[in-house]
From TrEMBL, chain A:
InterPro entries per the UniProt record, alphabetical: Ribosomal_uL4 (IPR002136), Ribosomal_uL4-like (IPR013005), Ribosomal_uL4_dom_sf (IPR023574)
PANTHER family for the chain: 50S RIBOSOMAL PROTEIN L4, LARGE RIBOSOMAL SUBUNIT PROTEIN UL4M
GO BP annotation list: translation
Main localization of the protein described in the UniProt heading: mitochondrion
Record flagged with keyword Transmembrane: no
Keyword Acetylation: no
Pfam families associated with the record: Ribosomal_L4
Locations listed in the record: Mitochondrion
Entry GO MF terms: structural constituent of ribosome
Name of the molecule in the record: Large ribosomal subunit protein uL4m
Automatic annotation (TrEMBL), chain B:
GO biological process terms held by the UniProt record: translation
Family: Belongs to the mitochondrion-specific ribosomal protein mL49 family.
Cellular location(s): Mitochondrion
Designated name of the protein: Large ribosomal subunit protein mL49
Key words, A-Z: Mitochondrion, Ribonucleoprotein, Ribosomal protein
Origin species: Cloeon dipterum
Coiled-coil regions, chain positions: none
Cellular component annotations (GO), alphabetically ordered: mitochondrial large ribosomal subunit
Single GO MF annotation: structural constituent of ribosome
TrEMBL record, chain C:
Keywords associated with the record: Ribonucleoprotein, Ribosomal protein
This protein's record includes keyword Glycosyltransferase: no
Family listed: Belongs to the universal ribosomal protein uL15 family.
Species for this entry: Cloeon dipterum
Annotated Large ribosomal subunit protein uL15/eL18 domain residues: 89-170
Signal peptide stretch: none
Protein name: Large ribosomal subunit protein uL15m
Highest taxon above the source species: Eukaryota
One cellular-component annotation, GO: mitochondrial large ribosomal subunit
UniProt-listed InterPro entries: Ribosomal_uL15/eL18, Ribosomal_uL15/eL18_sf, Ribosomal_uL15_bac-type
Single biological process term from Gene Ontology: translation
Molecular-function GO term, any one: structural constituent of ribosome
Region entry Disordered, spans: 26-49
Length: 296, 174, 291
């Protein structure tokens, strides 16, 4: 599985996957990482936020994953705190085959082929016998639109509409999301910020920010709700490779298409909660029922 | 369903036969019958009594598997929570999604092929294989083949050694 | 996650040294090639060629030889199979396990709805399953919960085990239409149909549900209390006094023979979205649902 990635690797990229900070920094933290000393005094937001994340349904033998909480209000990154992430969501086995299945599913399930090659019945004419059966010394034919004829119908051509719709099993789709998030975190492509509030609506600001922090050329910003702060909406409007997405739109294809994934705290909470809900769901009720709207 | 769609059902109630078994016939919008003006339907009293609503909420299922009880004892059915001391072992056998021990007996080929499977193993799986092998030999006097799948954290032991493995499992307190 | 955590952490560490996982370097596992049906003339598409579509073979077709379902004539023994009711079992040990793992709430009466909602028991109405059969095969000695339970069939040992612990057991019948509501109440409420009234059991079941020995819901309550005493003497335990129990109200909660949900009457429409219950005022409807 690992060999496949290195074998099929085409785009070298312009940088190695180095950790953004030396690993020793984490080890050198002796005191409680949630102590106020870590929080830079300039960050007023930091004091009002609660960093201790409550991880739901933690199995006893698993340890949480860790990630930095960063800021967006300055071009240079400020590490505000260390956050604990649930290992079943952010530390699951990197199943590249499951990611492939999800990407294939996303690509194909909406695909509809509408091209159609006219058959002998659909072409104009072709009703009359072109020449008599016998006497001419020519081959016998009934229609000049038969597939044997030049400009005749295509016997087994593409027949519209052809759908490629299929549903990937529910659990595989959940696994795809958890695997992709784990891969993103492991490859240092996951960043968590307090919110998507930026000081200006200047496009250059966000471009400079991404450049300075060495985030990938393309960035996916994920917030909890679909109404985003004004500044970031205006700043990223004309940039095709910076995209804003609500948490409900999170999908494997988009996460892989964009090099870097930036989650807000609210989005992180929502995503983790929803995925854990489905990992630990109680299998009651009828099979089709889970697609019905929930009123409670 | 919202208030607007209530009426149709009451009018048809009396005619509904006990033997007509068609579940979820009108569960979708397209499959539902068209609602006539509400005047056609019998009068109705709307109640939002919380005491009554509690009986409705009682009927709605839990969405997630409930968390196990916070206890250290073995409960009457034989269910036992994970003992914290088991985390000190070089290996750990996790529980299934339903918080049950992950030791299974698989019987195939009309009863002739029996395997005991241990799943969700983390840590030094080879050490666990050795320990289990010794224990099985002690108890049963025979060596049983054990197949290790390190990737999935799974052990497959040929033969029905379920009770021996469970004894080991309970001793360690997983 | 059925994976060794060490292996997971190692795999994630290896990923740090590898190129970024993107849309262009994904690959699925190699799957075994499908082996088509063999035979020159009967293999593959069974004589229909590769380019034809939707030529589904008849169900049960066995590529020419007389199919299994036509080889044998009708047999008398399965003539009335649709009338044979089945009750998928729940042992006392299973019931105790469900209680121990918080799948069932013992502070409330337990009925078929709560057992189906637990997520551990499944039954299929299409297979003529009519409810829970409480057996005493396993768990007779281990069972020690005090509950008010309503099942569809119960063995004598199961009844004894429950009553020994100060609980109450009733056997009741749900007709197939009501079963759709009872086994999946959440789905039923979404339909917007009025709660149906329970029909009386069929001829071959009425005797069972009217008998006090089976704690039938149609039995005479006085005879039931006599039967409780008799069973206690038979199995050799002292029958606990329910009247002195603090959970007396919960333990004596019973459904009306026409009722399928506790606290909700037939004829009511439950609106989950509005969080309201709609009750009919019409006299005829009320009479229909209350008789």
């Amino acid at each position: 599985m690992m060999q496949n990635i290195s074998k099929l690797f085409r785009n070298c990229g312009h940088r190695f996957l180095l950790p953004k900070f030396p690993m020793s920094t984490l080890e050198s933290i002796e005191s409680n990482p949630l102590d106020s000393e870590l929080v830079p005094p300039s960050s007023s937001l930091a004091k009002s936020l609660n960093f201790k994340r409550k991880l739901e349904s933690m199995p006893p033998n698993m340890e949480p994953k860790q990630a930095w909480l960063e800021n967006l209000n300055t071009t240079d990154e400020e590490k505000i705190s260390i956050l604990e992430l649930h290992p079943q969501v952010f530390g699951s086995m990197p199943r590249i085959d499951v990611i492939h299945k999800n990407v294939r599913w996303q690509t194909f399930y909406g695909r509809m082929d509408l091209h159609q090659a006219a058959s002998r019945a659909e072409l104009p004419g072709g009703g009359r016998k072109p020449w008599p059966q016998k006497g001419l010394g020519r081959a016998r034919h009934g229609s000049n639109r038969s597939p044997l004829f030049y400009n005749g119908g295509k016997s087994h051509g593409p027949r519209a509409p052809k759908s490629y719709f299929y549903m990937l099993p529910y659990d595989l789709r959940i696994l795809g999301l958890t695997t992709t998030l784990s891969v993103k975190l492991a490859q240092d492509d996951l960043h968590i910020v307090e919110s998507l509030d930026i000081p200006t609506d200047d496009q250059q600001y966000i471009e400079e920010l991404v450049q300075t922090r060495m985030w990938g050329p393309s960035v996916l910003f994920v917030d909890e709700q679909d109404v985003m702060p004004e500044n970031i909406t205006k700043a990223t409007e004309n940039i095709g490779h910076f995209n804003l997405m609500p948490a409900y739109g999170l999908n494997v294809f988009s996460m892989l298409k964009h090099d870097t994934l930036v989650l807000t705290l609210a989005a992180l909470n929502r995503i983790e909660h929803q995925l854990l809900l489905n990992i630990h769901r109680n299998k009651n009720g009828k099979h089709q029922f889970r697609y019905m709207p929930s009123h409670h | 369903m919202s208030l607007q769609v209530l009426g149709r059902t009451l009018a048809y109630a009396a005619r509904r036969s006990a033997l007509s078994v068609q579940p979820a016939r009108n569960a979708s919008y397209l499959g539902s019958t068209v609602v006539d003006p509400l005047k056609k339907y019998p009068d109705v009293e709307v109640s939002r009594d919380p005491a009554e609503w509690r009986f409705v909420e009682r009927l709605l299922p839990m969405k997630t598997v409930p968390a196990p009880r916070s206890t250290t004892e073995t409960l009457p059915s034989g269910w036992r929570p994970t003992n914290p001391k088991s985390l000190n072992e070089p290996y750990f056998i996790g529980r299934s999604r339903n918080h049950q021990p992950s030791v299974y007996l698989k019987i195939k080929e009309r009863g002739f092929q029996k395997f005991t499977i241990v799943k969700f193993i983390t840590g030094d799986i080879w050490r666990l294989k050795e320990d289990l092998s010794k224990r099985i030999e002690e108890r049963l006097g025979l060596k049983h083949g054990i197949h290790v799948n390190e990737m999935y954290g799974k052990l497959v032991i040929t033969g029905d050694v379920y009770n021996v493995v469970m004894e080991f499992y309970d001793e360690k307190g997983f | 996650m059925a994976v060794n955590r060490n292996v997971v952490d190692r795999a994630l560490a290896v990923l740090r040294t590898l190129p970024r996982v993107s849309l262009y370097n994904l690959k699925d596992h190699e799957h075994r090639k499908k082996r088509s049906a063999r035979g020159q003339h009967g293999g593959g598409t069974h004589g229909h060629g590769k380019k034809f579509r939707q030529n589904y073979l008849p169900l049960g077709f066995e590529s020419g030889n007389t199919p299994f379902h036509l080889r044998f004539g009708m047999e008398k023994y399965y003539k009335r199979y649709r009338l044979e009711r089945e009750y998928p079992p729940v042992s006392l040990l299973m019931l105790q396990k469900m209680i121990d793992t918080n799948r069932l709430d013992t502070t409330q009466p337990i009925d078929l709805s709560s057992i189906c909602n637990s997520g551990v028991y499944s039954m299929n109405i299409n297979f003529n399953h009519h409810g829970v059969n409480l057996t005493d095969e396993e768990g007779f000695d281990q069972f020690c919960a005090k509950i008010n339970i309503e099942v569809q069939w119960a063995s004598e040992g199961a009844i004894a085990a429950i009553e020994r612990n100060g609980g109450v057991i009733t056997t009741s019948y749900y007709d197939p239409l009501c079963l759709h509501a009872v086994t999946d109440p959440a789905r039923f409420f979404l339909k917007g149909d009025p709660i149906p009234k329970r029909m009386i059991p069929p001829e071959d079941a009425i005797e069972y549900y009217s008998s006090a020995d089976n704690r039938g819901y149609l039995a005479d309550p006085e005879k039931v209390s006599l039967a409780r005493l008799a069973l206690a003497q038979k199995y050799g335990y002292e029958l606990p006094k329910i009247e002195d129990d603090p959970d007396y109200t919960m333990l004596t909660m019973r459904k009306d023979p026409r009722q399928i949900f506790y606290g909700l009457e037939p004829g009511w429409v439950v609106s989950l979205k509005d969080k309201a219950i709609l009750k009919p005022k019409d006299k005829e409807l009320l009479e229909y649902y209350r008789t």
